[in-house]
């Protein structure tokens, strides 16, 4: 037992005697990988699937890396993803015009093992976690009014409604993979510029969604608005719910529109990052 304690103390002293810490800040752009179906585009002649990953977009990162020796270290980071817009519903048919997009807005964290192949060439691999955020859907729809819908407002044939709403989708706690290879270009003894290729492998299972904004206005055929805010968050039309829960199972006779079957949405990506690393003074060897 005494020998084990001495050995452990020796390892800790050796580790602390090397003690190299550095911080990195950077940004990058990622394209989607492992893309899945996100929606459809519909015309009078065809229906086409749209594919993508909500992990595509601009990211910002802040990381700290502690090296235990000349090769191996622990890398912990936080980041923010500002995802690009993806089409989830584009419908252009007589009487109906829908333009709906969705995008990722997420905060994440990584915990990885860092390894130096050389003084400047490195890699890291570990766990990726989403700690906050949402998939935001922004929807516009224009629909011709039926005779029954026109009658209370004494509107002529050809009148239509315009609806705009925003819906936030939230996912269950996910766990994914992060891997990167990078190269540092030293500026001086402390600062260096890094360029790296990074892969995120992660998908989110939907938990719930909530309407954030909702508004419907009515127009005559020549485009004059005759009724404003006919429907709002406080007065939703049939078929809309302020909050929807996503579950793994529903009965065949389910009549609750606020419950839907869950699905997984992709956030995987390949990206290129650039940034600056500051290396703190290494502890003197004992």
UniProtKB/TrEMBL annotation:
Keywords: Signal. Residues 1-19 form the signal peptide. The keyword Signal applies. This is Outer membrane protein beta-barrel domain-containing protein. It comes from Cellulophaga lytica (strain ATCC 23178 / DSM 7489 / JCM 8516 / NBRC 14961 / NCIMB 1423 / VKM B-1433 / Cy l20). The lineage of its organism: Bacteria, Pseudomonadati, Bacteroidota, Flavobacteriia, Flavobacteriales.
């Amino acid at each position: 037992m005494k020998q084990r304690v001495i050995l452990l103390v020796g390892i800790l002293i050796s580790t602390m005697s090397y003690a190299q810490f550095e911080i990195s800040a950077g940004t990058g752009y990622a394209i989607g990988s492992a893309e899945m179906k996100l929606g459809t585009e519909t015309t009078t002649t065809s229906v086409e699937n749209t594919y993508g990953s909500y992990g595509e977009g601009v990211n910002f990162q802040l990381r700290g890396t502690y090296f235990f020796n000349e090769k191996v270290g622990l890398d912990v980071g936080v980041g923010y993803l500002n995802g690009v817009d993806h089409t989830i519903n584009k419908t252009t048919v007589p009487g109906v015009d829908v333009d709906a997009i969705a995008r990722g807005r997420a905060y994440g964290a990584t915990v990885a093992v860092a390894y130096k192949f050389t003084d400047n060439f490195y890699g890291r691999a570990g766990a990726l976690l989403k700690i906050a955020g949402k998939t935001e859907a922004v929807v516009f729809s224009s629909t011709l009014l039926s005779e029954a819908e026109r009658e209370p407002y004494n509107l002529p044939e050809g009148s239509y409604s315009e609806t705009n709403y925003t819906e936030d989708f939230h996912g269950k706690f996910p766990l994914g993979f992060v891997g990167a290879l990078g190269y540092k270009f030293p500026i001086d003894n402390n600062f260096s510029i890094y360029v790296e290729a990074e892969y995120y492998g992660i998908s989110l299972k939907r938990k719930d969604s909530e309407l954030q904004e909702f508004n419907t206005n009515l127009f005559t055929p020549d485009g004059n608005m005759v009724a404003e805010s006919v429907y709002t968050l406080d007065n939703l039309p049939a078929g809309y719910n302020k909050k929807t829960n996503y579950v793994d199972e529903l009965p065949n006779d389910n009549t609750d529109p606020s419950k839907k079957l869950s699905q997984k949405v992709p956030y995987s990506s390949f990206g290129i990052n650039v940034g600056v690393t500051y290396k703190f003074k290494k502890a003197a060897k004992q």
